[in-house]
Amino acid sequence: MGTNSFIFFGLLLIPLIVFLIWVIKQDKKRNYIGLVLLVIGIVIATYSIIKLDKKYLDPQNPNTATEASPKSSSFK
Predict the structure, then answer these.
(1) Is 59 exposed, middle or buried (0-12, 13-18, 19+ CB in 10 A)?
(2) Please, are residues 56 and 69 in contact by the beta-carbon 8 Å criterion?
(3) SS (H, E, C) the chain
(4) What pLDDT sits at residue 67?
(5) Would you list the domain boundaries of the chain?
(6) Are the CB atoms for 21 and 74 separated by under 8 Å?
(7) How far is CA 62 from CA 1, 22, 69, in A?
(8) Does the pTM of the predicted model rise above 0.90?
(9) What is the pLDDT of residue 6?
(10) For residue 57, how far is the Cα from the chain centroid?
(11) Run means of pLDDT, 10 residues per run, the chain, 76 residues
């Protein structure tokens, strides 16, 4: 992952962790099912973002950048 990806994760991950801690403290019944599902979703999303980022930043495969961008059209 590039430096920009680490900055992006840092800017989103730190407030998310603070929010999760606040949600845990607000829960009077201590029902953790929703929180566990949320954390599992975050882990799956993080894993897939890292895998996609690695695929498109791979220097061994220069054609991946052109696959993601659509072909430009001319309006002449």
Answers:
(1) exposed
(2) no
(3) CCHHHHHHHHHHHHHHHHHHHHHHHHCCCCCCHHHHHHHHHHHHHHHHHHHHHHHHCCCCCCCHHHHHCCCCCCCC
(4) 54
(5) 30-57
(6) no
(7) 16, 44, 13
(8) no
(9) 73
(10) 15
(11) 72 82 78 79 85 73 58 68
